[in-house]
Design brief:
The chain is α+β, with helices and mostly antiparallel strands. Helices cover 13% and strands 28% of the residues.
């Protein structure tokens, strides 16, 4: 993929392992193999009641070895951790993607919320959802073979249009970490790209072409790679992208199916097998210290439950 001249993206056909990390990079440039991947700092809210809680989380994190890097790279993973029981915060300096750190903490039976990552103005997030115009929308039947019958009155995650989450953390001037997780999508291959606009009303049709930068004399590739979604409707994409976060904020991200007909409607717009979102700035490390939302009055844990119910991981 030309978008990653420094290092190829990798895909994973299943959910992130709770300990082992995300996907495996391949095709790395020889010169880059001599360099350490830049680390970043992140803070997580974690229920910590005593030293036993700290030791459990610390033990799990010690097994994160950054193995989404090629095996011939220098040792990577977590370089430092700091725990605060009174504030319920864990601070981690690492090269591993946030989704790996969250799933590792969750493997101890405790939840985790990413509160901030990277330097100020160096992180972004994108909630990926079914386009408002999709007709018919991604149905429960197409999303998963284990989806409850449409006649059931039980509320499920398929009632929400949300199908994934992407995080971007800028590690250096021209190097940004991409961490994308999809859920509840039909099995298949999906292409991920950054689009010129942030208009998601008609999906890829209103998002415009793949973004190639604003310099007409120096076109860049806004294709972020291809991701495989498995039988359970999940897929992961982790890798490096050669953009700065501020260049992508408020632009759209599109994940569209590339095998079969892509679920395209007869009018050529509003494909049913695609999800879209708008990249928005997210908090850097120590920039988000709220415990209760000033708008809703809900705690971060109450908001977390709502987001999980909507499919936001």
């Amino acid at each position: 993929m030309s978008f990653l001249s420094r290092r190829a993206l990798a895909t994973s056909m299943s959910a992130l392992s709770a300990v082992a990390g995300a996907a495996i990079y391949h095709g790395a440039n020889e010169a880059r193999k001599r360099d350490m991947l830049p680390s970043y700092e992140a803070t997580f809210s974690v229920p910590l009641k005593c030293d036993t809680c700290v030791n459990d989380v610390k033990s799990a994190l010690s097994k994160v070895d950054g193995n989404y890097l090629p095996t011939d790279f220098p040792p990577a993973g977590i370089s430092s951790t700091f725990f605060s029981i009174p504030s319920g915060l864990v601070t981690i300096t690492s090269t591993s993607p946030p989704s790996t750190l969250i799933s590792t903490i969750q493997s101890t039976g405790r939840d985790a919320i990413l509160r901030g990552s990277g330097n100020p103005n160096s992180a972004a997030v994108c909630i990926l959802e079914i386009p408002p115009s999709a007709s018919p929308p991604l149905s429960e039947a197409s999303a998963s073979p284990t989806t409850p019958s449409p006649t059931t009155t039980t509320k499920s995650k398929y009632d929400s249009p949300v199908r994934g989450l992407a995080r971007l953390i800028q590690l250096s001037e021209r190097l940004t970490l991409l961490d994308l997780t999809l859920t509840s999508l039909p099995k298949g291959r999906y292409r991920v790209s950054v689009r010129k606009t942030g208009d998601i009303t008609r999906g890829s049709a209103s998002l415009g072409p793949v973004y190639t930068g604003d310099d007409e004399n120096h076109k860049r590739d806004g294709g972020l790679g291809v991701i495989e979604v498995d039988e359970e409707g999940r897929g992961n994409l982790v890798g490096e992208v050669g953009w700065r976060v501020w260049e992508l904020v408020w632009r759209g991200m599109c994940v569209e199916r590339v095998d079969g007909d892509g679920g395209r409607n007869g009018d050529g717009e509003g494909k049913t097998d695609e999800v879209v979102g708008v990249l928005a700035r997210s908090a850097g490390v120590w920039e988000n210290e709220k415990v209760v939302c000033g708008c809703s009055g809900k705690t971060v844990w109450e908001e977390r439950e709502e987001m999980v119910a909507k499919g936001v991981l």
